[in-house]
Structure of HELP domain-containing protein:
Amino acid sequence: SLFLSFALLPSTVVSDGDTNKKLQMVLATYDTVSASSNMDMEDRVSHLEQRLQLQEDEIQLLKAALADALRRLGYCEEHNQGMQPGGSHAGRRPLATTGSAAPTKGLGHFKHELSPFPHFRKSMSTEQLTLVRREMAAESRSRTTSSSSSSGGKRWMDGYVRMFLRGRPVTMHIPDQQRESYSIDQKVALPDHKLKLQWVYGYRGRDCRSNLYLLPTGEIVYFNASVVVLYNTEEQQQRHYLGHNDDVKCLSVHPDMVTIATGQVAGNSKDGKLLAPHVRVWDSVSLNTLHVLGMGVFDRAVTCVAFSKSNGGTFLCAVDDANDHILSVWNWQKEKQLADVKCSNDSVLAAVFHPMDTNLIVTCGKSHINFWTMEGNTLTKRQGLFEKHEKPKYVLCVAFAENGDAITGDSSGNIYIWAKGGNRISQVVSGAHEGGIFSVCVLKDGTMVSGGGKDRKVVLWDHDYRKQSEMEVGDSFGPVRALAEGKPGELFIGTTKNAIIRAAFPDTLTPIVQGHTDELWGLDIHPSMEQFVTCSQDKQVHLWDTNSHQPLWSKTIEDPGRSAGFHPSGAVLAVGTMTGRWLVLDTDTRDLVSMHTDGNEIISNVKYSPDGNFLAVASHDNFVYIYAVTENGRKYSRVGKCTGHSSFVTHLDWSKDSKYLVTNSGDYEILFWEASNGKHVTNMDTVRNLEWSTSTCTLAFNTFGIWPDGADGTDINAVCRSHDGSLLASADDFGKVHLFSFPCSQPRAPSLEYGGHSSHVTNVAFLHDNSHLISTGGKDTSILQWVVA
């Protein structure tokens, strides 16, 4: 373009001034042509993008049309095969939903026998195409021979919805009163109510350190699952920072005592995408996120984080869980990494800035303590020298004395003092504790407290490291994990059994936070009071009060717990274990009332009938055992054994009249049973119109809308209907609680989604008055209490 512009100039001789003017004209012309050319290019790109989008939309429509045609053809094939005397469907139980056993994970698609325009699907697995071709054959036959008595015509008249999970067809029959009005394409509204997190039970002390602090607001700050909790112990109120999407692993408070940094692990979203580990810096007053650091930088998890002290907290250091445990330093306000270095091949348990030297960082862990000096973007290491002193297997914690000396506690129970600015031990307190020392905390008056593991003792030391006083934490709360100074004369103690205790020397210990310590599944709600029960693989059963947020009682049982259920009177509760044993406890006294064993597999569900006269015990041995219950839940005699499932039983519900129960299994069967004898009900007319006391089966006509596109049959662990019949809550494998409108009988029903748990959510239940929802986490061991607003 510039060459052409010069060529357009007249070939005359001009002065220097004229030459400058001509050159300016040329440049102006070039700029105009160039801008015009760029605009043309942008228009062309935009036009091509629009055409490409239109073509993609057309392809999607064609795919949908093809999928629907194949589905119709498949329907025909399935029915034709089923009608043949020697077909694969001969002799099948009418209500079983086994279907093909191939393990292909497919999109959960649906078939509605009442609608002539089935719902389009975007894609299907090969196995699903085979199934739907069979379906289409039956649909076609029912149109052409509607007056015949063929099974195809009868199924059409009966009406049902069919979905597929991992290639298996799941058939759900429509109640008579809904058959005429039901349409699978009907739009469903979001629920009228919402959830708001009110309380987090428990604390993560089992595998995290230095995660308990007191803020000037009077709140203690700690974390559990993916929630950072700010708990005002005087006002009995909690606030929650919900910015994380997976397990929080570390926490640090800025010198301004307002800004907080928390680090999390890597995770996976439900669509399989990696959730990167990172550090979030946030305001503890507003709960707003200020900065996010390290997306794509950290590996596996951020295990240590700390603000600098002497320069106003400008810097932040972090250690990740990579093989080399990388130590990095950041200007967190600029979100800029200043330096990083390989810290250690072994585990790193703590990383802190020296309070008097911005450029000095101390790290410790397995068999080491290192002193790092930062110069520019370089970190230089000096190893701590134990010399003549015993070298411990682990240096577990580090703090700083008023004069700048570093203080460490180790796995041998010794306290070492490292002189300021050096890397040698200047003083030793040998045998300060029996077993490891997990925490040391220097108090405002210069004295120090240390917390022991094996001995569970908290010891107070004077300025010269002479023992002044000690107290012992009870065995039920476990070893000391973290220490934080409270109000004058007060301490907060975090323990490895996920409890927080408010303490004062010499012997005042008051638990203020308690929780489970192993995978948690068992949950049920008291039928008439603001209470709920939980049981876990930690062999603990807790009866909780939803107002005080404390356990009314706790009981240790012999086997890991898995399921729980209240008698309708509330007088007793049943607990199922991982070993086939189940027991009955008195709700008031926690005394053992009865104990039984059915098989040696997991008892996945224990549920009393609405009238209290029966107890159903569902097992992973594929059976459901039915017991007659008398004397207000104190006497049990087995009256039936439900035999027919080909996989472990996952969920069950009782009919309102207590005469029938329905069960789901691990291979997506839906079976019905008579309560009085355990007989399998095969006549659909008997159970189609039953009203169910609860809706906890994840596979049922009124709940199947909870399943999202592409769902694996194990993605949803639990579901619960509110007692007024307006809401449905579900618990999934991706740390989410969902809230739906009830009934939830439309495919892929819309829901409100809530985070807080960091692993699979194992159970959900509404309180008896529908005011709250309780949810339990599996590996995160947490219990969350939500207000239904």
